Amino acid sequence: xxxxxxxxxxxxxxxxxxxxxxxxxxxxxxxxxxxxxxxxxxxxxxxxxxxxxxxxxxxxxxxxxxxxxxxxxxxxxxxxxxxxxxxxxxxxxxxxxxxxxxxxxxxxxxxxxxxxxxxxxxxxxxxxxxxxxxxxxxxxxxxxxxxxxxxxxxxxxxxxxxxxxxxxxxxxxxxxxxxxxxxxxxxxxxxxxxxxxxxxxxxxxxxxxxxxxxxxxxxxxxxxxxxxxxxxxxxxxxxxxxxxxxxxxxxxxxxxxxxxxxxxxxxxxxxxxxxxxxxxxxxxxxxxxxxxxxxxxxxxxxxxxxxxxxxxxxxxxxxxxxxxxxxxxxxxxxxxxxxxxxxxxxxxxxxx
Length: 352
Ligand code: TXA
Ligand code: MG
What we know:
Elements: E1 4-7, H1 15-26, E2 31-33, E3 40-44, H2 48-58, E4 67-69, H3 76-79, H4 85-94, E5 99-104, H5 111-114, E6 119-123, H6 128-136, E7 141-142, H7 157-164, E8 170-173, E9 184-187, E10 194-197, H8 203-210, E11 214-215, E12 244-248, H9 251-267, E13 272-276, H10 281-285, E14 290-294, H11 301-318, E15 322-326, H12 334-344, E16 349-351
Helix pairs in contact: 1-6, 11-12
The protein binds threonylcarbamoyladenylate (TXA) and magnesium ion (MG).
């Protein structure tokens, strides 16, 4: 298939382009589009055939459910029942935005979309291109991240093209995704609300609306006995091609340990990628075999989150033999960053 690639203004997208993209969705085609979190691969969520095409294009296991994207709160009524009071409060505060809420699904939502689950995950994105496309495409767009299954999520159109050119009908290029990590997923069907995937909205921000909120124990742990409730969190994900280790501990010790590993790698004739804060980058750059990406200042997690997936792809492109990363804890986005980084590393952590 020939993939049509269209540049769109991220704030004032061209109406004719959006209309064409919307028509593709109404005819059960696939359109990749920017959101404020990462790029999504969209299809009509209420059409079993369209949703099935998403799994095929991504190479995604069909028991891993999709998030349904809407463009207005009223759209919830057709697909979810009940709509709890807490959900309304959360939506009032944080929609449109990087928050996904689980509901019991109505029959109109096909099993292909929810991977056979009785629940449906719903999000209302704030990105103007996403909102316009959802409206033009019928109001209900299933959209996983627009990467091949197992690859880092795309934060710009070139990443999508790398993975999906020739596999989808259209890619809308609306520049870089602002957040860089996927939405926070919250489950309100338990007695105490549970975060199934950490994201831009932190536990504290949800607690501000809901009172006590728990974090799914599967999120920062590799344990086999804690099965995360979001099926997608079980799969090895976001994997760069080279093995990745995370170094955690006192900042000085971390830098020393990574420098030691760089020297060892040099003796083996290997090139190593290093993901670090701006503060330590120069130390690593002194090593000739190091390909260093400073993911922003260590105390600015927003910058780290924004840079993370792109960095993992760059290490692949550069042909790194292995990757060493500093740990990035703390702040509003610390849990979200470490959740993705730990999964990319297959939970390989060196404590120093
Ligand atoms: O920010 C985002 O949420 C992005 C953009 C494109 O909106 N989308 C995204 O979709 O990250 P995806 O498919 O890559 O991740 C969806 C996650 C998976 O872990 C999936 O298992 C979980 O949501 N999920 C979806 N429906 C669910 C359900 N009914 N119950 C539990 N988990 C669900
Ligand atoms: Mg994904």
